[in-house]
Fold these 4 entries.
Entry 1:
Amino acid sequence: MEANKIKGPAKCVTLPNGDVITYAERGEQNKEIMFTGALYHHTFMPVVEELAKRFHVYAFIMRTHGVVEEINTDGSIHWANQWGKDLYDFANYLGIKKFHYLGKCHGTMPGWWLIKNHPEMLYDFCSFFLGPHTLPQNSNVWMEASQNGKMQELLKMSIRNIESGLKKKQEELKCLGPNLEDTKALMKYMGFPEILWDNDIETMEYALKTTNVPIGYLFGSEDPLFNDFYDSNMKLPFITKKCHFTILQGERHLMELDCPDRIADEAFFFISQAHKNYA
């Protein structure tokens, strides 16, 4: 169990295929079920706690080792497919046939896997701070800062309240420990939903235009990743069937460090509207 990747009580299950899933369970008193995934749940846990005021939330760890089934032709692991399959198997193991899904940035990838492979399992999908890319990238501010090791600069671009945000990030890194895996090899699977369609943009666009799953997009206007893919992101409401599309002025990529309750409130509003019969 990777309990160090979760702030607070953690659980784990071993699935029939041998996969070990670590997760936090919150809001057990609620009837409606929501899943949310991430590489770790520390600074994002306040969002989970807010969501748990209305939903029974399973916050699972998107693992980076262990039993794998999704293999590329070159023998490498297709982690985007694996994370989606993990969610599918985990939900079925728990006997949960349908649920809400919320993902933020890389945490959206299991949700996009379900959109492609098992949309029948989703009541709706909150795809926050990441959407499929259908147009060329506008800039590369985020990745350049990340790859050049400019972490202080990256955090300053990502948080409004720098002092408290840095403290929370430092506490998170301390809990995760010195053996935290290098995510560089995972990067192409973490932020590019189109990889689930083998980068076949036409087929992916058709899926967006015809899906019956309500999808809610949320972005911050000052998020470098939003602006790095500005054209693609602004195209989303025109190619996603009956989607909900929100840009919050002034918010940045690590919004969970500044106002976790606002992320949850945006999810609550989207979900409350998603199943009303608007024309």
Entry 2:
Amino acid sequence: MARIETTERLREIITDYGPRGAAKIRDHICEQGIAFVRRSPFLMMATFGDYGIEVSQKGDHPGFVEIVDERTLLIPERTGNHLAIGLTNILRDPRIGLAMIRPATDEVLRISGHATLLDDADVCERLSAGGKPAVLIIKVEVDRAAFHCVRSARRAKLWEPESWDAPTRISFGRIYADALSQPELEEQFNRFAEESDSNLY
């Protein structure tokens, strides 16, 4: 199996449209991007850690991410993230990547930049949800932002319910029981996960 190891070989396969193609990439969030963030309820967040790149998710009501300006976002952290993998990564390496998603919308807004963690009672209170303030705040300073085109979502028929498989539920009880080699704990862990998942805030 032949490996691609140079940019030259890559560009023999994938056409480079040059500066015109890259014109959509900005050093700030454009006007349409700001409108998108205000209506987005979900994002994927990439951080850099000891095991490479880790990807986690954040979600809440549409517009839960606060826009300070075209180069600054505030993401509230909610209860339940006890492993805090992405947050720990930010303390070690501030580089961050976001993919912001809107249901029934094929475009994805990609943002990369640098993050810091804030412990600010006033901001946490302002970004409350479910009657509870945010646990902390992830401040993102934007270096690059661009919309990804629609092809991937449309090929996947991502927002077409008639194409979806039957829903499944992951048994965290089985995952923990297998990891601990204690199969008798599966039911107990499943009950705990069910109770925890019902406590959104």
Entry 3:
Amino acid sequence: MKKSMAKKITMETVMDDPRYRGYHVIVVDGKVFKARTGEEASKILDGVRIKFPKQIPEITYIPDADTLILWF
């Protein structure tokens, strides 16, 4: 009998998803949390640290497509 393997969400998959553009994103234990402002992200991060004390969260801001800065 095969166990169904759920696809684990990583920061790489989140960064490729256009739904998260313009958000502060926190990924921990395969779960994604997003916030519009840094203040909201800070509150979410406080909750994540309590809920997942042994996990290290990955945190980033994904800019809108209009605000990307390209270096050549």
Entry 4:
Amino acid sequence: MTNSLRDPKVAATLKRLHARATADWLVFLRALPAVLWGWLRGRSAMESAIPYLKNAYIPINAEQGQVLYALARAAQAKTIVEFGTSFGISAIYLAAAARDCGGRFTGTELEPNKVKTARENLATAGLDAVATVLAGDARETLKEIAGPIDFVLLDGWKEMCLPILKQLEPQLRPGAVVLCDDIKAFAKTLAPYLAYVREDGGPYVSQLLPLGDGLEFSVYLGASEVRS
């Protein structure tokens, strides 16, 4: 069975990007005054730092990337969607899974410089034939996505994760996997999202995975369970 993460182009690109992402601490250093002020007001460090993050990677780590790839392969995902592609690290893991499953990856990103770089990184990894990064507001760009969707990663603006999930929900196939990152870092902001996917009798089975800042793993049960 093919594993595109072992492809030399993919592996080299991921190694380079993970190394570059270690410089994110400089971004957070510049954001420190805002973070401290936000802390005094009861906000998380990540929430307070948001205005400074246009040039930050804030990526998944390699362990999370391996899990993303494995989950997408296990789901035999042919249509993979990501909200919040940033510079494309998670996109490479997911596009690798899409290629190995005979499918396609589609990401969306608001920041133009991140869109350009993510596309370049996917091309360098040799995955551009199976990957598309859409530029703009996800509420508009993701209207182009045709179902059924097999796999979703929500890693963009945290206030938008629940609206984006609800927008994509009619396109999800029964058994689709939905992941939402940074659950612990944005606990307050993502509380409505968690309430939705964890609601008793709702259309999801959901559990927090102890990876990074918390990765919520949800499985969509099907349209018959969708709330009115």
